[in-house]
Fold this protein.
Amino acid sequence: MEVDDESKPGDVDECKVDCRQQIPKIMKQHGFFVPYAVEVVRFEPTAQMAIEDGSKICSPYHDELPGDCKDGAVCGSKDGSIRMRDACRHYRFGTLGGFVTDDSGNLFGLTCAHVVDSPCPKHEVYKCEGEIYRRFATSSPKMTFHFGENPSFALVDFAAVQVENGAYKSCNQYIKDEDGLHWSWTVYEGKHSNLVGKRVYKYGAYSGLTRGLIACPDLELPCSDLPCAQTDMYLIMIDNLPDALPQSPNDPDVLPQGPFSKKGDSGSLVCFQHVLSNEQLIRNSEQKTITVLSMIQCGEMEVYGKSSSQSLSFMLATGLRCLFKKSNVNLTCVCPPQQESC
């Protein structure tokens, strides 16, 4: 039985008395009598799991100061939130990939560096909630990594933003499956040879849940060697599912699926689909673990001037190693207590 109780701690006895009066009436009404005990459990109502993988985030451009009011476009508030009517002129947008912790238990959110990088420490990062953007983390030059710059994107474009202590309770530290259920997760560090054609999915801030397959697991582009990569094969090309495309360009009843990722999806984590039969689900009572392959850093690619359905991503394991080499901060994924580790 749940009772909304906004009374003071000294009024616990009154709450118990009220419950003891109501419970017999309910049992008599339904003709159901069982022994019972009354206990009062108190907890503070909090906004749980408001920030999760796939959340829309933003941060000011390098030359913008958080909370500045320019032409009424950006206005700060005491609770760390801002209202923006012309945000695109002042802020960069992207996707929160997921959460990791360092060896001291500090919580970090993963995304692309071009979304949050700044030459200044404590650069503010916001979670977008409609027209209200609330600060939940800060970025620093130490925790951002770029490699392989070209006019459109970096080959490895990785950042970990440190979550503020007051925002911990609002962060869901697990990864969503295709049904929107959250599970523990691990980082893929296996071979590339058997990845072609594997089905994957991702949650992006702009395109939401999309499914695709691995078109090329060992893409190599002309650039210098990446010192922190264990292999030269760290770029993964993701494409649409072929069965989502129209059978004929003149078929009006079959519409093509959009690209696997769009602008604003930078930072999305690409995960392997977890296919189980009904028999496996019934026999296996243990929770599954999601395997994360890579991070999207370039959606809506253009090939020879034409838009492509393919998206470029880099191995998440490579991003974590590169950031560790730069910062000497060891980041690991979070798992539920009393379950297999990440």
Notes: The radius of gyration is 24 Å. The mean pLDDT is 76. The CA atoms of residues 63 and 90 lie 9 Å apart.
